[in-house]
Structures are given as C-alpha cells and as structure tokens.
Amino acid sequence: MDPRSQLAEVGPLLAGVVSGISPEQLDAATPCAQFTVRGVLEHMIGGATAFAAAFNGEAPGEAATDDVLAGFGPALTGLAEAINRPGALDQTIDAPFGPTPGDAFARFVALDGLVHGWDLATATGQAYQPTDALVAEIDAFAHQVLEPLRDGDIFKGAVEPPADATPIERLAAYTGRTVR
Asked: What is the dihedral of CA 83, 86, 87, 89, to 10 degrees?
C-alpha cells in the first residue's frame, strides 16, 4: 500500500476520534507521556501545518491552535491536499530528523497519525479499530526506520506489550507507549 492509501485510511480514523473528544477531555493525560489530549492535538496541528508547507515548497505559516477541536480538521485536510499534490512524494522534505524523501516522510506522517489516534482514543475512552492490514504495513515501516532515530525525545525506546496486545497496541508499545 502506498503512503497516500495509508493516509486515506488513517484520516477517517483520526477524524472519528477527534469528533468524539469533548472540551472537558482536553486536559486528560495520554499514553504519549509528554502530551495531554490538547497537547497531542496541538502537536498534530503544528506538524500538519509545517509539513503541508514543506510538501508544497512553502515557508510554514502559523498553526491555528487556539481551538484545537475546530482547527484539527482543516490542518489535516491541508496536509492531505499537499501530500496528494502531483510530485509531492518525489521531493525531499526537511523533516525534524533530517532531509527525508517525500514518499518516506508521508509514511512517517501515517505512522504518527495512526499512533496518535490511538493515544487520543485511549485517553478519551473511545474505540479505535484500524484494520490489521493497515497496522501491519505501518508497523513494518516503523521497524525499518525507528531504531536509529530513537533519541528519547522524538522517538522513545520500545516497551514490551502485554502478551494479549492487539496489533495497534503492539505498534504503540514499539513507539514507546505503555499499553494497559
């Protein structure tokens, strides 16, 4: 599956979770240790804004994080449009961890979206059921690229998941989250 197809599956999952978040839940802790629900949304809006600009060959604008629940959809839509622009995946993107081929960076975006969707769903008590095929593809990518990027900040060390962990829980644990 190409990264655009992965993102086409991750987008609706994220939209569903975010639409189920109430303002009262914004300060709840998430499995992503450094972020509350609001923090995950701010991080994702900021990333989407910066990465859309990068895929479009533009300087990033200011991320709209005053109302994270209202700002999430437009920011992610802008990123999806930028990634789907002709030639977007053929360029090099200045990623937080260095210059990265656009195709590979779009896969990082899918990984980030899938795992942060799990963070948000877990923190707000929502069901989160990405397909096993999607999780398997993104998990295989994560296992190819994350080890040299683990710095304890952007990417934490893997955590051992419970024996009965679901595929998404195993991926979350591989990205450094404590599962259950």
From this structure: 30
